[in-house]
Amino acid sequence: MLNYEIFMKHAEKVCSSPHLDAVDRHQILKGVKHFENGDAIATDSHRLYLARGVHNREDEAVISPAGKVLSGNYPDVKRIIPTNDPSQEIGLSVADLLEASNAIYGVGSVIEETPRMDFVEDSIRYDSVHVKYQRTLPDRFEERMCVNAKYVLDAVRLFKAASCQNVSVKFYGRMRPFTLANEDESLIVLILPIRKY
User: For the whole model, what pTM was predicted?
Assistant: First the structure.
């Protein structure tokens, strides 16, 4: 079960994204939006974390991971979470995703490339002129998709901290955000793909 402190600790990685410094209107995204119903959301416009029912506040505050209440209007980001049926839904183990994303992020960081994770056919891959990595999975991806491995790694670490063994991955099209969720969807992570294919 995910508790508030764990969520805020992991949300800090989203709230401290470097590109939030580039645009003034993004400053409010350095905080976590607390909804009256107990939900909390963090986003950096490339990924979004939603935890349902993790707090008891009723003031709709935006709070930084350090505990500071921020002023400003938080955008209506709940509307970007897909509610339609996915084009594909598969279950993946947290352990498999953690191993693959950790390996790809590690290699990409060492050779100073963007650590791009490819979902291709029945595997997760990393392919550069310097090194190749592949982890075969029990399911096939119906579409090819490329994502930032750091975003997947951060998300999977959150699911692991919430004691999740498996996640449901829902795809909505090659260039549309996909989601990872635990069994009861009390924790959802949305990630925007990278344009490659």
Answer: 0.94
Of the candidates 185, 138, 142, the residue with the CA atom closest to the CA atom of residue 164: 185
> What is the distance between the alpha carbons of residues 120 and 142, in angstroms, rounded to a whole number?
8
Which residue ranges form the domains of the chain, and what is each CATH number? 4-80 (no CATH), 88-166 (3.10.150.10)
In what order do the strands lie in the sheet containing 123-127?
A: 132-136, 123-127, 116-120, 145-148
Query: Each residue of 78-116: pLDDT tens digit?
Result: 999 999 999 999 999 999 999 999 999 998 878 777 789
Q: Write the DSSP string, 79-147.
A: GGS--SPPSEEEEEEHHHHHHHHHHHHHHHHHTTS--EEEEETTEEEEE-SS-EEEEE-SS--SS-EEE
Q: Starting from the edge strand earliest in sequence, which strands make up the sheet with 166-171, in order?
A: 69-70, 62-63, 32-34, 40-43, 47-51, 187-191, 178-181, 166-171, 88-93
- String of b and e for 64-87 (b: at least 16 CB within 10 Å)? bbeeeebeeebbebeeeebeeebe
